Amino acid sequence: MDAIEVIRAKRDRGELTTEQIDWVIGAYTRGDVADEQMSALAMAILLNGMNRREIADWTQAMIRSGERMDWSRLDRPTADKHSTGGVGDKITLPLAPLVAACGAYVPQLSGRGLGHTGGTLDKMEAIPGWRASLSNDEMLGVLRAAGAVVCAAGSGLAPADKKLYALRDVTGTVESIPLIASSIMSKKIAEGTGSLVLDVKVGSGAFMKNVPDARELAETMVALGTDAGVRTVALLTAMDRPLGRAVGNALEVEESVEVLAGGGPADVVELTVRLAREMLAAAGVSASKDPETALKDGSAMDAWRRMIAAQGGDPDALLPRAAETMTVEAPASGVLTRLDAYAVGLAAWRLGAGRARKEDPVSAGAGVVLHAKPGDLVRAGQPLLTLHTDETWRFDRAVEALEDACAVGEASGEQLPLVIDRIT
Ligand code: URA
């Protein structure tokens, strides 16, 4: 078999055979298929699609390219959540210890931010001393000590996806439902969780800009998980406006701690509790307490503190703050009808919260704080946003990103419900 034959088959809208898929993924992982050949194939897949059988074969081949983790030695069921990514999406931070406090183990392999969406590991690294890289034995130790662990995937997990994702990122081939579904699910299945709740974001701040595309992605991922023996359910949730009031690494940790202390913005609390209930149900845990109670009685906070300390972090340390702030004011009086998620994410990125290339550092303190959310009444000139950065030259670029971000009108505008649909 050779790469050109496989590329031509997909270029000409053919269906790839199981053998072709196994061969091309294996050969690419070994370095026998060149990056330029794989990019041509990824582009052919983006343009011509793959059917469910091809996507399942592609996912299985990526799983087989590396190790598979096994949590069967644990005495409680495992549950995991994956978000397709958004602006202000810090839900993993309160959710993982919350679900642990309610009786399931949460082995959560997370990623870093790229572009306008933040990454859980970048947020957690704002906590002084906290370590993202753990060996498999260390992961098991943290799970036993705290019930939840949030860390980076080791290099042995789905190495084909690691290589391919980096290539897609620089060849305009990220936005393909078959490639996104197989990329996410190969890692989640290889991670060895018994159950999985997918939070598929919809709107300007997400990969999927509209509900039909998000539904197709969710259905594809649920089918892949279920066929691999992982109890999988997906929620479609709103990402037309930012989630919560904080966007940026340390700022989002601060907001997550507020949620764990029984407070925090209503949308973050609602989604955290809803996802926790879904995870416990998918894991088959008859929870010893309801997630809402575990946020109020301090048990989720206790699990958070144990988890941070077990990974070298100091849960009492002061979080980094950006050196400079600037206020953006409401342009008129009335109802805030729109505050665009993508624009706010782009502003936070330009303030230093995100990275342009994988190897770039991020600023822990940079980001955006929202003083109003769509539906709120605002007065002309009142603070709408506070921008945080370490370098004042970044303000102009952030303000430029926010130029058309908000609208003020007479009545509430159309916005997506927080939870749009549930796919099983
Ligand atoms: N996240 C992933 O892990 N892979 C994708 O392709 C897109 C988002």
From TrEMBL:
<dbReference type="GO" id="GO:0006206">
    <property type="term" value="P:pyrimidine nucleobase metabolic process"/>
</dbReference>
<dbReference type="InterPro" id="IPR000312">
    <property type="entry name" value="Glycosyl_Trfase_fam3"/>
</dbReference>
<comment type="similarity">
    <text>Belongs to the thymidine/pyrimidine-nucleoside phosphorylase family.</text>
</comment>
<keyword id="KW-0808">Transferase</keyword>
<dbReference type="GO" id="GO:0004645">
    <property type="term" value="F:1,4-alpha-oligoglucan phosphorylase activity"/>
</dbReference>
<dbReference type="InterPro" id="IPR018090">
    <property type="entry name" value="Pyrmidine_PPas_bac/euk"/>
</dbReference>
<dbReference type="InterPro" id="IPR036566">
    <property type="entry name" value="PYNP-like_C_sf"/>
</dbReference>
<dbReference type="GO" id="GO:0006213">
    <property type="term" value="P:pyrimidine nucleoside metabolic process"/>
</dbReference>
<protein>
    <submittedName>
        <fullName>Thymidine phosphorylase</fullName>
    </submittedName>
</protein>
<dbReference type="InterPro" id="IPR000053">
    <property type="entry name" value="Thymidine/pyrmidine_PPase"/>
</dbReference>
<dbReference type="InterPro" id="IPR036320">
    <property type="entry name" value="Glycosyl_Trfase_fam3_N_dom_sf"/>
</dbReference>
<dbReference type="Pfam" id="PF00591">
    <property type="entry name" value="Glycos_transf_3"/>
</dbReference>
<dbReference type="InterPro" id="IPR017459">
    <property type="entry name" value="Glycosyl_Trfase_fam3_N_dom"/>
</dbReference>
<keyword id="KW-0328">Glycosyltransferase</keyword>
<dbReference type="Pfam" id="PF07831">
    <property type="entry name" value="PYNP_C"/>
</dbReference>
<comment type="subunit">
    <text>Homodimer.</text>
</comment>
<dbReference type="GO" id="GO:0005829">
    <property type="term" value="C:cytosol"/>
</dbReference>
<dbReference type="Pfam" id="PF02885">
    <property type="entry name" value="Glycos_trans_3N"/>
</dbReference>
<feature type="domain" description="Pyrimidine nucleoside phosphorylase C-terminal">
    <location>
        <begin position="335"/>
        <end position="409"/>
    </location>
</feature>
<dbReference type="GO" id="GO:0009032">
    <property type="term" value="F:thymidine phosphorylase activity"/>
</dbReference>
<dbReference type="InterPro" id="IPR017872">
    <property type="entry name" value="Pyrmidine_PPase_CS"/>
</dbReference>
<dbReference type="InterPro" id="IPR035902">
    <property type="entry name" value="Nuc_phospho_transferase"/>
</dbReference>
<dbReference type="InterPro" id="IPR013102">
    <property type="entry name" value="PYNP_C"/>
</dbReference>
